[in-house]
Amino acid sequence: MEGVPETSSPVSDYTSEIIVARGDEAELRRVAVDLAETAAAHVRARRPEVFGQAGPAEGAVQAKGHPTDPVTIVDTETEELIRGLLAEQRPGDPILGEEGGGSLADSAADLVHWVVDPIDGTVNFLYGIPGYAVSVAAMRGGRPVAGAVVDVARRATYSAGLGLGAIRVDAEGAVEHLRCTPVETVSMSLVATGFAYGKHRRARQAQLIAEILPQVRDIRRFGAAALDLCHVAAGRVDAYFEHGLNAWDWGAGALIAAEAGAQLTLPPATAPGEAGDLVVAAAPGIADELAALLERVGATEPLPDR
For residue 305, what pLDDT is reported? Predict the structure, then answer.
């Protein structure tokens, strides 16, 4: 995409040489799906136990970097579950998780890192809004090569392997091969986005939306970045952009979108969300036009969290 910052690393630039050299993407995809679906079942079972009619259990919810940014006991439980399963299935593989930390600093080309978001869309989960997911990605050299995102409430699994395409499997087992929409003009595009918890970044995001909204069909805000990226892949929206994501937010979803034909702008996997870099996924027919619009309104500039 034009207007991509020099630090960006588009998923769509991955080479066939990597695919030929590795050849284990199908197995990594299988592991990602198994982990994400097992974790999603745990999240689904625990929500009514922790958030019953009497309200959240004592100590079940805490704040993170901002008072409005919650983490629940189910988030931490679920990440611990995934880490335990990985220790059994892939002993020795490093893990980066939203709650338990980790690092992608060792980006050796032959080393698989697992990047985990135990509940993406925790506010939705907290309120019982059906828009939260478990995201698991296998990364090599700082780029996702396999991943799975499970829409917990809808029991739908999105997955992809590098060079293997992207699919959605619903609760009944029906398989949908994912492709972006054929939209060709930004004025007819449905665009998803998200907002930060920090007041400064949120205020600037509101200004950007005010400039972008008149130029598109409409805007949607679902509240879970991993699902937003999957929605681009499935053609349920035409594009998605957001500032300030971490690798666990976009790791699996970006690959799923790319394998469905989307064009992407991504920061380095090691870039912290606090830096406020832009993530974009767009159907190919509008990618260049959307990039130009985002640059024109100033959306390609980072929005640091302060």
Answer: 85
**For 106-112, what is the mean pLDDT?**
76
Cβ-contact 168, 175 below 8 angstroms: yes
Using only C-alpha atoms, the chain has a radius of gyration, in whole angstroms, of: 18
- Per-residue model confidence as pLDDT tens digits over 129-185: 999 999 999 999 999 999 999 999 999 999 999 999 999 999 999 999 999 999 999
- Sheet with 143-151, side-by-side order of all strands: 95-97, 112-120, 133-140, 143-151, 156-161, 165-169, 175-177
Instruction: Please provide residue 71's backbone torsions phi and psi, each rounded to the nearest 5 degrees.
Output: -130, 135
CB 243 within 8 A of CB 194: no
How is 182-233 classified by DSSP, letter by letter?
----GGG-EEEE---SSHHHHHHHHHHHHHHGGGSSEEE--S-HHHHHHHHH
3-state secondary structure labels for all residues of 230-293: HHHHHCCCCEEEEECCCHHHHHHHHHHHHHCCCEEECCCCCCCHHHCCEEEEECCCCHHHHHHH
The total number of residues written for the chain in this structure: 306
HSE-CB for 214 with a 13 A CA cutoff: 4
Q: For the chain, how many helices (H) and strands (E)?
A: 8, 16
Per-residue pLDDT at 63: 87
Indicate the helix (H) or strand (E) that contains 72. Answer: strand 70-72
Interatomic CA distance for residues 200 and 156, integer angstroms: 35
Task: Please determine, for residue 68, whether its predicted confidence score (pLDDT) is greater than 60.
Answer: yes
pLDDT of residue 22: 59
